[in-house]
Amino acid sequence: MITGQATQLKGRYDVVVAGGGPAGLAAALGAREQGAQRILVVDREREAGGILWQCIHAGFGLHHFKEELTGPEYAQRYLEQVLEKEIDVLTDTFVADIDRDRRLKLMTGREGIRVIEANAVVLAMGARERTRGAVRIPGTRPAGVMTAGFAQKVVNLHGYLPGRRAVILGSGDIGLIMARRLTLEGIEVAGVFEIMPHANGLSRNIVQCLHDFDIPLYLSHTVAEIHGRERVEKVTVAPVDAQMRPIPGKAWDIDCDTLLLSIGLIPENELSRQLGVRLDPVTNGPIVSSGMETTMDGVFAGGNVVHIHDLVDFVSQESLLAGRNAGLYVTGNRPPTDNIRLSPGENVAYCVPHTISSERPHTIYLRVRRPMEKCSIRFGTVLEKKLSYVFPAEMVTLTVQPKFLENFHGDALSVDVVAR
Amino acid sequence: MNYDVTIIGGGVIGCAIARELARYRLGVILLEKECEVGFGTSKSNSGIIHAGHHSATDTLKGRLEWAGNQKWDSLCAALGFGFERIGELTVAFTPEERATLERLLTSGRAKGVSGLEIWEPARLRREEPNLSHDIIAALHAPTAGVVNPYEACFTLIESARANGVHVAVDYRVEVLSRGEDGWTVKGTGPDVASRFVVNAAGIFADKVAAMAGVGTFRIHPRKGEEYLLDKRLRGFVKRIIFPLPTATSKGILVIPTFDGTLMVGPTAHETEDRSDITTTLPGSDEVFESVRRVVPGISERDCIAEFAGLRAAAEGEDFIIGPTAAKGFINVAGIQSPGLTAAPAIAEMVAEILADEGMDMVARDDFVPAVPPHVRFATLPLDEQVRLAGDDPRYGRIVCRCEHISERETVDAIHRGAHTLDGIKFRTRAGMGRCQGGFCSWRCMELLARERGVPITEITKRGGGSWVIRRREDGEKP
Ligand SMILES: Cc1cc2nc3c(=O)[nH]c(=O)nc-3n(C[C@H](O)[C@H](O)[C@H](O)COP(=O)(O)OP(=O)(O)OC[C@H]3O[C@@H](n4cnc5c(N)ncnc54)[C@H](O)[C@@H]3O)c2cc1C
User: Fold this and answer.
1) Contacts of A111 in chain B (CB under 8 A)
2) Pick the CATH number of B84-143+220-306 from 3.40.50.2300, 2.40.128.110, 3.30.9.10, 3.40.640.10
3) Which is the most buried residue in A261, A305, B114, B441, by most CB within 10 A?
4) Secondary structure (DSSP) of A172-235
């Protein structure tokens, strides 16, 4: 395993990247590509690479590298480039604070507390998993209730087992991947329970992780109660009514000692909030321009900290753009500001970026609120693209070329997904 | 070994008594069935040091509430747990409720509770802009405070130990027998002999009294559910907010905890089951619906964690403190709310009872009231942080990213008594923040294993069978 190490921490950098996961590494490379000189990536873990180290399954890089890699392989490729480009990486270091003058307070296991300055900052702190409190599952509070990501770390990074018989709440991708992993490790998975009427993970994961292993998926079901004083002993599961409340008469108990939660990810924006960057209440991430710049001058953001992605390839792509723009910013080549605001309309939960320019091509990411078949995406009246289906669990990605905006003179475009 | 006093139960009451008795030349042992002290009701409550004016003076609990309230400043100065007098507001929505506030004001003043004052809407809007605008008046009581109750237990016992008190955890008392010159205590550890036994067993106090042959009362547990909110709401209200009881609710409070996060609760429902610390959907609905009436900006979407605790209510609803028909067996039972508030006063009362019962109470001249200060690294000024982390880089290594707790603070907590993940959590706050241990659990487990020299598979959440991870067994697939 190769990771870069900052030999000597400098007092000032051109670009400091907060977070050394796939987003941060791509952003650092983007900044270097555009001529930024002193670049530092800071990560609180012992190795950079983020969540990828514990994702030992394949399925990464199909878009970006055009081959199927495991998480660690994907991380390794980026880390090698980062080293080659002589980008400093400081691990075991926590960015505790960033102020408006772009001074960063670092807590480091090696050097104690340090304050450094940056000409530009890229926020790449990723996301954290939602926990039990966020969904208020009634019952006791025993050991054995854990997020799917924690179980993944225990099994894949440390070689221990989280229990003997598990139930999984939520059909997020990490939960699906862990359903398969636990089964392979000899732990019985009694079922995956999803409160929504549709699954929350990628279709390929439903097939490869559940169907192929005969693990049942119960849609419109939830865990209604947790039992057990010291360790989980059983859970009560039940179908839910239209208000998403468990229907008591139809509940049943499942013996298990482990309850994995895969109930969603939340962008980790504590630093952004302290800094005063404006956040989008839907994504819970910063509002960004087409150059991935936040509402604060010289502060950029990319990856899951902005909005939750399904695939690391898009995290890398988006963050590369954030890094490039940070590079352009510090070398004084910042492009003209955007002139069109995108506003989510019919069946669109959000779009990223929040603004675009009529001068440049853009990749737009969006999520729909509900599944739809035979539909199209409309950008006002300037562009319409047909889609065979859309699904909340699958991010929609599309490019908008400047030629479509030639005759558009407004300052806002409504983005709608409508039936054909 | 032969002791003068055995204290059964290491809740805030047992811990406060242990520390009080540590002032005297006595051999004292405290026995606690859980793996750490404070893991019963004393960590699962609202953490309020009640202002003193709510309960009537003709009850023991009414008297001890105000007496206890006044002792928390000096206790905090010596032990350094989280405590602050943030004040409370009891709010009125109707003219009838306003009249009740006037009555509370008069009776509180008669008791000697200082600073009571009725606030009119203009003042209220200015001081607490997020309260419902339907509130027409509020009674302000500056003597109310909030405390981290588990920290109070941990530091009380640390101080007691430092002054010679013995403590046995994982010790469940099962049999009490009275002999010639005192009691023999049997349970899940070596036998203990002592002249006196103090029963501070919380919701099991009636069972322990029965073991001594004086089962004259019954504890009927009353459950309270509480919900903790994201720290984004820090400062949303600055004081503890009490509604007046209504026909539908006994009064759900909004509590700015010492650490700045808001907590809402508790419910109050009788339960037969003494192990029932479940939270429920109806409980959660009740809490959030009541709270919305008082602070409309709070919703269940802000919830990050929940818990429930059991009030050890006795028939008659008052505290039962005093000697019994069984010589040398002293009850400190029925300690429901405001038991936490009253704890320091109860401890002094128990010392007086022991003296009355013939115990020779000679003050020690080498009693050390203070424990070494706890470093709360995240709250220190930058230059101080730089200095500390320069001396020990473990202050720079993050363990809990939500609450910014360092490795050094975690290691200190372990050396000061934390045996479990909850033990670390309640000493340092690591795991109490919005990610609820998702990030720090593994780091805490590694540190516990390293510092205690045990395999990581032996680390538990809160002792007993609360294991977290396991090793693959021999022959187990794959
Ligand atoms: C929801 C709720 C909110 C509250 N809010 C407040 C508040 O805001 N302010 C306030 O002043 N009070 C409050 N209270 C009341 C307060 O929490 C209690 O009065 C106080 O914690 C009681 O302490 P204790 O030591 O008696 O009980 P506990 O903390 O329960 O301690 C008893 C101990 O005895 C041990 N034990 C039992 N049996 C045995 C045995 N056989 N052998 C060995 N050990 C044994 C138990 O394990 C336990 O640790 C609240 C209570 C609840 C439930």
Assistant:
1) 393, 396
2) 3.30.9.10
3) A305
4) -HHHHHHHHHHHHTT-EEEEEEESSSS-SS-HHHIIIIIGGGT--EEETEEEEEEE-SSB--EE
